Amino acid sequence: MIDGAFKDRLRAGEPLLGAFASIEAATAVEVMAVGGFDFLMLDGEHTTMGPADAAMLVRAAEARATPVLARVAENERPVMARYLDAGVLGTMTPMVGSAADARRAVAAVKYPPQGERGLAGVRVNDFETPPGYTQAANEATLVVVQIETPNGIENADEIIATEGVDVVFLGPSDLSAALGVPGETKHPRVLDTIAALTERIAAVGKAAGTVARTAEDYAHWRSLGMQVFLHSATALLLGATRGFLQGVKAAEANRTSPC
Fold this sequence. Notes:
Blueprint: H1 5-11, E1 16-21, H2 26-35, E2 39-43, H3 51-62, E3 68-71, H4 77-86, E4 90-93, H5 99-109, H6 133-140, E5 142-147, H7 150-154, H8 156-160, E6 167-170, H9 172-178, H10 188-203, E7 207-211, H11 215-223, E8 228-232, H12 233-256
Parallel strand pairs: 1-2, 1-8, 2-3, 3-4, 4-5, 5-6, 6-7, 7-8
Helix pairs in contact: 2-3, 3-4, 4-5
């Protein structure tokens, strides 16, 4: 049954560090959970992962008591419903460009009267619909929207103010493209935009989030009021692999070099 403890932590202002579960394997999810992330985000936008994978991956995280959300590929209720029914605690919607987009995301996550989510006996509610379930689910579920397009930047204030939105996530990669410096995620234009938006998000009592791939990234954004952070399973694996191989090659070079 759905649990509101993670949302309580968000409301309390705790910094929450998660990772995109971008490898479609239960063991990979479980390893990240064992590693100690506060939550995991299934990536249904930039991988082949779909709702059919979600239940298996959620089970792996639940075995280690780690909350799971899902980034969806489309801001459409039927798409989001399948992830939610499989057991994710909420969704992240990319490319939100208006208040209407944000309201659509909220409506997909919440049951009536707050939204339009369909009710059935499925995995997330232990295959039944007991009294009080929809109210508890509406209270516990999270709505994360991403501002990462020119329209999103232009309409940021109305997106941020949308009732039911819990976290506004600022994606540096797509923001770099939107700001005319594609791939330059540390460009001053990108950093300044994220900083300004973070201030506006915090001013209305919402949580701001972004990508933090290093401890330095985390410290910088945390000092500016950011609360939710995501890394990536593939980036972590690739970084660890390269670091190990570079270390081995350096050790071999030192071993074979003349005295």
